[in-house]
Amino acid sequence: MRLIQISDCHLRADPDARSRLGFPWRQLEAVMAHASRLRPDILLVTGDVSQDESPASYRMAAELFDGLGCPWFWFAGNHDHPEFMQELRPFHHELDLGDWRLLCLDSRVTGQAGGELGEEQLSELAQSLALSVELDPRPILLAMHHHPLSIGSDWMDALGLADRDALWETLRPYPQVRAVLCGHIHQAFTQFMPCGQGSVAVYGVPSTSDQFAPLSHDFAVDEAARPGLRVVDLDGEHLETWVERVTL
């Protein structure tokens, strides 16, 4: 099973609109062409599809994703309009990845750049994980828009998951959770978070648009970094993942 993750497309209704460093629509087209050559089984889009929250930006993205020829799924980031997205493609809270399960969590908080899961969603997650111990012991991937731990960037960490400690406490009794995929940070990232008797891998992905400078105290873009995607290969209980950059 090959999953490709992309994130943070930041499209506008005008396909010729510029970002700080480039043209988001053209960059997304290049990333999707690269993704097609990797022959994915599934595409996961982890939020901030749009910058202007326009229906047209979501229609453009959905048509491009349809052309990949495999099932695709998305959820909202802090820049998104969830209702417009769901009119085109409903959100899914759980995906069957064969030997693995993928649980999608909603970290968006209306009107805020930072994220939060909230007590109700964390309680539902705990219940789902507890049931899976006996009923479905497959390893689990989590996916959310906001990053659930510090990435060493002061301004970005202030806009991460506000209830990250509660999330890790929720996950602590459940070693079947192996990894977390997130967007939001506009950069490649890997860190292993101690959790219970083991650890959980947290993977960030480059934006398909502009990249943020790693380890920056204040907001900064990385002018040298290219757009990219993350490949996740699942074989039995084994997970292998890497980032690929796209030349424009």
Account of the protein in words:
The protein has 248 residues and is of the alpha/beta class. It has one domain (2-245): 4-Layer Sandwich (Purple Acid Phosphatase, chain A, domain 2). It contains six helices and eleven strands. It has a six-stranded mixed sheet, with helices on one face. Strands 3-2-1-10-11 form a five-stranded mixed sheet, with no helix packed on it. Helix 4 packs parallel to helix 6. The longest helix has 17 residues, at 119-135. It starts with a strand and ends with a strand.
Short account of what is shown:
The chain is an alpha/beta fold and 248 residues long. It has helices at residues 24-37, 55-66, 82-88, 119-135, 154-157, 164-171, and strands at 2-6, 42-45, 72-74, 94-97, 100-104, 140-144, 177-182, 189-195, 198-204, 228-235, 238-245.
CATH topology: Purple Acid Phosphatase, chain A, domain 2
Radius of gyration over C-alpha positions, nearest whole angstrom: 17 Å
Helix content: 25-40%
Number of DSSP helical runs = 6
The count of strands amounts to: 11
Strand order of the largest sheet: 4-5-6-7-9-8
Q: What structural class results from the helix and strand content?
A: alpha/beta
Q: Output the CATH class name.
A: Alpha Beta
| Secondary-structure arrangement, i.e. CATH architecture | 4-Layer Sandwich
Return the string of H and E elements. Answer: EHEHEHEEHEHHEEEEE
Average pLDDT figure: 97
- Terminus-to-terminus distance: 28 Å
How many structural domains in the coordinates?
Answer: 1
Shape call: globular
Assign the CATH superfamily: Metallo-dependent phosphatases
Estimate what percentage of residues fall within beta strands: 25-35%
Report on the biggest sheet.
Answer: 6 strands, mixed
Unreliable stretches? none
